[in-house]
Batch of 3 targets.
Target 1
Amino acid sequence: MIAAADTGHGRFGIDVLVARLADPGFRVRFRRVPSLRERSGHVSPAMLAISSPRSRYVRTWRRHARTCPDCAAVFSYLGLSLR
């Protein structure tokens, strides 16, 4: 599998990828995109993306996101703190 990393085609073997997960820069650049679809009872990713971090909308949904892993993933993806 190491040979797959040396081919120059941009594809890496699983061993190389797992080793690179320890690098914080790799995790930030290649993190998994959360589900960004609208669902009732959860934060609207579109509204959250355009709202100010100090807005009432963000403050209200921040409290919810502290206990909801799906909403917390959206906050994290957009770079918003849960504190």
Note: Residues 21 and 68 are 25 Å apart (CA to CA).
Target 2
Amino acid sequence: MAHKLLLPRGRHYRAEPDLEIGWFKYYINSGSREICTLQIFQEQESKGIIILAHPYLSVAKKFFLIRGHAKMYYDAGYDVIIFDFNGFGESPFVDFNYAFDLSVVASHIKNRYPAKRISGHGVSFGASHTISYSTQPDNVFDKIIIENCLDSNLSYYRKRNLKLHWTMLLLMKIFPTVNRNHNYVESISKLKNISKALFIYNAEDDLTTIEMGEKLLNACNICSEIIVFKGQHLNAFQDNQFVYTNKVTTFLR
């Protein structure tokens, strides 16, 4: 019930097998978790592994197939992992600990490919949980790309659904830990083991604003930079493909 109330888009997923041609589908299990991943590896030695964390959309991991991020990274020489957070796509709902979903995926990949450098790229919802995961001392990421991230999940509810905003505020008073780790400005100041961070924002985005990105940049405790592209929320790559590709691949070198 809580999942449907707070994240209603999570269960409106339709499989599109044609999009998955050439990808290896693999479920990573940890306790009650079954995280659905799609993986594609270079035939020759790769430049490293990139794990992509999807935004809050019903298409879940397909976002990166539809919009082209996955192909961009593969064409640039990276092994690519995309996955569904629990309660989205083909990963059954367990709980709201989405950073743990990412931990399950990243740890599994690191155990299988210990010599490969792994980086993370999260978009919006996925970006916030990439930050949360990257505060853990055992995270395996080298660099992270944080795209269209909120300063706090309360900002999303305040903008998109005032009823849920007030519901969350009430829950926080009754259960002080219910919104733990969702102040991303605070979390970004506690990154562990990450060598560098890149923040990506859009000039016409009124949900995850440039001001939010600047808050994250200023609070970040490691070497970091921000780039602002033209376009609206989630459209940085599709509206600026050449410059975007050059920027993220240069950053990951």
Note: The chain has a mean pLDDT of 90.
Target 3
Amino acid sequence: MSHSSAKSANPELYYGSNQADVEATVFEVIRRLRVALDVGGLALREHLDLERIELATAPGDRNPIRVPFEVRLTVLDGRLLMASYHGPFEALTDDVRRPLSDELTARSEVVQRAVRALLPALLTADLPANYVADVAFVRDGQPVVLELNPLYAAGYNVPSAHALLVAALGADLAHRAGYAESPWTEILDSAATLAGERVEQSPAVWLLREPVDCSISS
């Protein structure tokens, strides 16, 4: 169970792996939403057994840290710009981020397959030109879209992903203003300057060779 829409400062904590966790999470969702909204109750639409990543911070660690395996797809101007890790990354300490980086690198092919599997739905859906789609993975490895959010939510907690968004937005706005369209390599160079590292080398960002057109065919 997830309720990241409650916009907690720690959305990665809002998952329930057993009945007690689910009940506690539901209670917390209602408590938070009642501050601003009239909530009569919650309806369970579907229960998903989502994959998590377990991070052992020391050899033989019996209490590994568990974080979500969730990916955020960023669509800019009708094109799939990138997939980035949507969970704690920059906020983690170095000794925890290192094993998480290894786990994310090992899942690169899984993410790439998920992106391609979901593209047909994105191509045919009546969606805005700019948005992000949050994707999680059930235990059998199948990707599932959890929710859609506005573009400003892109690059959450991953500096290199945010840098790529800023660079791509700048290039897009310049092109709209009449300047020549920036090549993809130039956008990546600009993002590297902003982030202080190559986006292509970040374990928390997955790129296709070029942004994929997700605009709706007429």
Note: The chain has one domain: 49-207.
